[in-house]
Records
---
Amino acid sequence: MFVSSKELVDKALVGNYAVPAFNAENLEMVQAIIQAAEEENSPVIIQTTPPTVKYLSADEAYAMVYALAKKSKVPVALHLDHCAVFDDVMAVIKAGYSSVMFDGSKLPFEENIAISKKVCEVAKPMGVTVEAELGTVGGKEDNVVADNAIYTNPEEAKVFVEKTGVDMLAVAIGTAHGFYKGEPKLDFERIEKIKSLVDIPLVLHGGSGVPDESVKKAISLGMAKVNFATELRAAATKGVRRVLEDKEVIDPKKYMGEARNEVIKLCKEKIKMCGSQNKA
């Protein structure tokens, strides 16, 4: 079934687990994510970044996910990840996305509030969930680049949520986009402080490569959505490379099918880590 992400993350927050949010680049990855969710009976959020939307188009991404989601026994939301352009957010809402993220984390505080609020005023009456970000998650992923992470200020988070009306908030607490060169050290005290001041679900970006126990602890403190992207790309590529070691293979179904198998396996592991199995 095709749903908005708000109902999924709100339920997760109360149930003390997180909804896994997986970035997809193509049909096989969408198939893999939904199959993994069905096998684990888990709710799931499928995400596309702005470069992926440019590659596929919002209409095509929506059509692909919706066609598979409406046949699925588990709830599936389609989310726009890390979009810093208001008009582009509006475009995916028009295309049919059930969830969007306006990322104004690089803007001055008041400007981030103003645009995030404007997104909410358009999206929420249409039943579309809105995520925003405060603070800057480091690292690089697609067009998301931040050399220096800026941790989220808890008091600013309280003001931001009250003034914007966003449904969920991505916070910077020590994670980064892409693969880590060392083990990330999450600021759990900061999560606790933020959660004590805001009453909406928090979102953990940069989940790829974070130790399982760290993710689980973050979830116990209020993270109700955890994003995974880099590891899925690596898993898909691993499957393709393995098949293409055989120089005789020319059928895309063979190597993309193996990419799908690798993504299924990884997604099932992440679902279990998030504690969302049997929560559909």
Note: Confidence is low (pLDDT under 50) at residues 144-148.
---
Amino acid sequence: MTTPTLPPFHQKIFPHAKSATFAKVCSVLKSNPWRLYPDSVGAWRTLREPSAFTLVELLGVITIIGILAGLTLGAAGAVRRHGANSQAKAEVAALQAACERFYADNNLYPSNTSVDPSTSFSPTAYINAGQMLFSNLFGGNQYNAAPTAKRYFEPKPSMVSSTNGANPYLKDPWGYAYGYNSDGTNAPLIWSTANQNTSAGKNKWITSWPKM
């Protein structure tokens, strides 16, 4: 009995191994294996060559990033200003309440009339009045020292010009001294310039009295 001759293995399993198309694919893959890829139906297609960004595209991306950064910074600045205004309003109200407690015990307010808010617009002129207000309401003239009299107000360290020096003054969220004016009998005027240091910005002040 004669045994039939079997075809070579690669011809039996891969009948297309000697085809011209397969030979071309192998040749291309050998020189650049990333040039071809099979699609969903089994055909071989050439990959598209990668392209770089043009100068116009890069400028467009940079412009968009700049616009977004500007919007973000502007919004952050508005949030900070709103937060500082809210903090100053709360501190002015707390100082006003402390002065009322002082008056209830002493039948007079802490007295200082050296600053008139209708004529003085610079916070540097408020330092002496701020020092007087601190010592009367804090019960001492140094933040980190024990009080020598009754304490009516407990400021945060950020609200005091110095936590270890003598005669500090009370300052607003912008770092300026709070304004104070009272003759001891009438209710005190307490205000922050809200970083507006000229007469033109007075309508933006934060005050203990209602603004007209």
Note: The chain is about 40% helix and 5% strand.
